[in-house]
């Protein structure tokens, strides 16, 4: 008997608003995206994409994406939000969810996922984040809870200065986000010397201040969820999880093509000039020189005139391969702005490229 699937990622902790403002997805566009846990594929459908090519080289990631796709398109919204973990589930809902997943033949441990609180919180990344949340909670849990719910920025600044800045939170971050622990999770171990911010823990502490003090965390779904494990009460959910978009996903369920493969290999099979937008997330961080060049060449061939490409990275700047230099233009202003407005923000670099 095979071991039930537990993916590396069960929820894509990436702000789709930044992706959409960059890619400007238009009705009927063909969008190629890293699948991960499916969220950005679903969001692209809601944004109007006519076809979504969702690719991941990890079979468990495509499995969890398909599970979530089944949940979102075949269950009533109220049950789907229980299955994903946005609200607490009920025994009747659990039974309905188990029956649906059992009927798909997908090798996914739905019982363990529901016990953990929902499909979106059942992953190896959540196991890692639980350690971070536990350590932060022991050091400054009350202050963080107050920060996340405080409307007054002066109150948030006071909480930070009095209960977080000197509380040992920096030490917790240095231990949990140490090179030996994040290498192999966020980036491959051999790429660590090319990190844009070393130590990463110092960068993350500054990020916490920006997302929890400078900006209103009550309007941020992503960052409070990252560090506390809970959704901000008033923050709008990702597009795919909003009730008004449930019917859109159900009606357009066939828009997404799922692929277990290397991203470049799938894109290379597309008709030249046919793909309007590419969301690479940070897959280039995981690419050696040959893979890096292959992905860019594949993208360049498949890209439609004026195509847009969005990527995030933990690493320092990396020049374009010679084969595509001069063909793509980097939007410096939007790229820099994205780094500031992104509601998750833990990537060091954001880039928006347009085919000339």
Adjacency order of strands in the biggest sheet: 3-2-1-4-5-7-6
H/E series, N to C? HEHEHHHHHHHHHHHEHEHEEHE
The best one-word shape is globular
In whole angstroms, the N-to-C terminal distance is: 52 Å
Radius of gyration in whole Å, from Cα? Answer: 20 Å
Q: Which stretches are low in confidence, meaning pLDDT under 50 for 5 or more residues running?
A: none
Mind summarizing the main beta sheet? 7 strands, mixed
Question: How many helices does DSSP assign?
Answer: 16
Strand content: 5-15%
Total strand count, please? Answer: 7
SS content category: alpha/beta
Percent range for helical residues? 40-55%
What is the arithmetic mean of pLDDT? 93
What does this 3D model show about the protein?
There is one protein chain. With 356 residues, this protein is α/β, with parallel strands linked by helices. It is built from 16 helices and seven strands. The protein has helices at residues 16-23, 39-47, 59-74, 77-84, 91-102, 110-116, 124-149, 153-164, 169-176, 179-182, 200-214, 222-228, 246-251, 263-267, 289-302, 332-341, and strands at 30-34, 51-56, 256-260, 275-281, 303-313, 328-330, 349-355. A seven-stranded mixed β-sheet has the order 3-2-1-4-5-7-6. Strand 4, helix 15 (289-302) and strand 5 (303-313) form a beta-alpha-beta unit. Helix 7 packs across helix 8 (153-164) and helix 7 packs across helix 12 (222-228). The protein is globular, with a radius of gyration of 20 Å. The relative contact order is 0.15.
């Amino acid at each position: 008997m095979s071991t039930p699937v537990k993916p590396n990622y069960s929820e894509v902790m990436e702000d789709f608003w930044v992706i959409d403002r960059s890619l400007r997805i238009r009705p009927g566009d063909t969008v190629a995206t890293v699948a991960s846990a499916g969220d950005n594929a679903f969001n692209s459908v809601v944004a109007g994409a006519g076809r979504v090519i969702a690719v991941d080289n990890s079979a468990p990631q495509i499995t969890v994406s398909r599970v979530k796709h089944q949940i979102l398109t075949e269950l009533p919204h109220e049950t789907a939000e229980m299955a994903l973990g946005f609200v607490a589930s009920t025994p009747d809902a659990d039974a309905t969810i188990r029956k649906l997943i059992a009927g798909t033949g997908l090798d996914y441990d739905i019982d363990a996922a529901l016990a953990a609180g929902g499909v979106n919180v059942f992953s190896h990344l959540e196991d890692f984040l639980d350690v971070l949340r536990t350590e932060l909670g022991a050091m400054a849990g009350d202050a963080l809870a107050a920060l996340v719910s405080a409307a007054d920025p002066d109150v948030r600044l006071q909480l930070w200065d009095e209960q977080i800045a000197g509380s040992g939170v920096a030490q917790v971050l240095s231990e949990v986000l140490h090179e030996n622990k994040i290498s192999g999770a966020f980036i491959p171990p051999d790429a660590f010397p090319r990190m844009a911010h070393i130590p990463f823990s110092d960068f993350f502490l500054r990020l916490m201040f920006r997302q929890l003090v400078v900006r209103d965390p009550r309007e941020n779904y992503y960052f409070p969820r990252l560090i506390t494990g809970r959704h901000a009460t008033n923050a709008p959910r990702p597009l795919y999880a909003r009730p008004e978009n449930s019917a859109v996903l159900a009606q357009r369920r066939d828009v997404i093509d799922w692929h277990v493969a290397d991203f470049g290999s799938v894109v290379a099979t597309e008709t030249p000039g046919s793909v309007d937008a590419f969301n690479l997330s940070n897959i280039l961080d995981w690419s050696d020189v040959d893979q890096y060049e292959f992905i860019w060449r594949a993208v360049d061939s498949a890209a439609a005139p004026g195509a847009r490409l969005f990527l995030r990275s933990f690493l320092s700047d990396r020049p374009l391969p010679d084969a595509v230099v001069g063909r793509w233009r980097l939007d410096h202003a939007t790229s820099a702005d994205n780094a500031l407005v992104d509601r998750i923000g833990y990537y060091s670099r954001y880039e928006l490229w347009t085919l000339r």
